[in-house]
Amino acid sequence: MFIKKINMRMKIVLLIFLFCFLLVVLRVFYVQVFDYKKLSHLASDLWSRNLPIEAPRGLILDRNGVVLADNLTTTSLVLIPNQINNKEEVSEKLAEILGVSKEEMDKHVYKKTSMERVHPEGRRLSYEIADKIEALHFDGVYLVKEAKRYYPYGNLLSHTLGYVGIDNQGLSGLELQYNSYLTGEAGAIRYFSDAKGNKLSLSDIYTQPQNGMNIQLTIDINIQKSLERELSNVVDMFNPDMALALVMDPNTGEILGMASRPDYDPNHYQDYSQEVLSRNLPIWASYEPGSTQKIITTSAVVEEKLIDLEKDTFYDGGSVQVDTARIKCWKAGGHGAQTFLQVLQNSCNPGFVKMGQMLGKEKLFSYLDLFGFGEKTGIDLNGEGKGIIFPLNRVGNIELATTAFGQGISVTPIQQVRAISATVNGGSLLKPYVLKAIEEPETGNVLLENKKKVVRQTISKETSKTMRMALESVVALGGGKAAYIDGYRIGGKTGTAQKVQNGAYLVNNYIMSFVGIVPSNDPKAVLYIAIDNPKNTALLSSYTTTPIARRILLDIIDALKIEKQPGGLEKDYIWSDKVYYQVPNVIGKTKKEATQLLEKFQVEYSGSGDIVLSQSPMSDERIEEGATVKLLLGS
Question: Which CATH class is domain 49-217?
Answer without folding.
Answer: alpha beta
